[in-house]
Amino acid sequence: MKVVLTEFVTLDGVSQGPGSPTEDTTDGFTRGGWLVPYIDEMFVRRTAEWLQRADGLLLGRRTYDAFARDWPQITDPDDPYTATMNALPKYVVSTTLTEGAWHPTTVVRSIADVEQLKQQPGAELQIHSSARLGNALLKAGLVDQVRLAVAPTVIGAGRRLFEHPGDAAGLRLTSQDATPSGLLLLEYETVGAAPVAEYEGVTAFV
């Protein structure tokens, strides 16, 4: 399976609390809910399509606990995400959790265990939220694709997606789109180390 990091971020890279001011108030964060004003039909359709590609969810402990609390409570039969989220196999990376209440759940202990999961047949093992886990796996070279929905807002506070220490990673843009509300929907493939070069003038590129 491919490991795919799927995240909602602001223009200044914040991934914390996209859905509600009370979704994640860790470290006193009060500026959540920044994605909601930009949700439109195209965003829902495309992100639902992304989710349909998953054969499993790979989550950190904090995200898993929040998702396990909230997703089973959604009963709207027309919600395009709920049935899939609740039915997919969940893999939670944790050294303290012994079992999960959001079935079906498997607890994995280490990055080495994730590497073994990648060897299983299937299309995609998707990371949703779980920025620290995503960063650790990107550093370990285990992330194959990155999908971002970028909101046209700068909020100036909160936990950023790629703020954790790690090696420089190169990405290749494979798909780009903009929704009517202004969200950018971007898909990248990882290409190993980030390339660098020294600028030698415009003529070097033409």
Written overview of the protein:
The chain has helices at 41-52, 61-70, 82-87, 111-118, 131-139; strands spanning 2-10, 54-60, 90-93, 105-108, 124-128, 145-151, 169-178, 184-193. Helix content is 22%, strand content 27%. It is globular and about 60 Å long. The protein has an eight-stranded mixed sheet with strand order 4-3-2-5-1-6-8-7, with helices on both faces. The protein is an alpha/beta fold. A hairpin with a 5-residue loop joins strand 7 (169-178) and strand 8. It has a single domain, classed as 3-Layer(aba) Sandwich (Dihydrofolate Reductase, subunit A).
Task: Furnish the topology, listing elements before pairings.
Blueprint: E1 2-10, H1 41-52, E2 54-60, H2 61-70, H3 82-87, E3 90-93, E4 105-108, H4 111-118, E5 124-128, H5 131-139, E6 145-151, E7 169-178, E8 184-193
Parallel strand pairs: 1-5, 1-6, 2-3, 2-5, 3-4
Antiparallel strand pairs: 6-8, 7-8
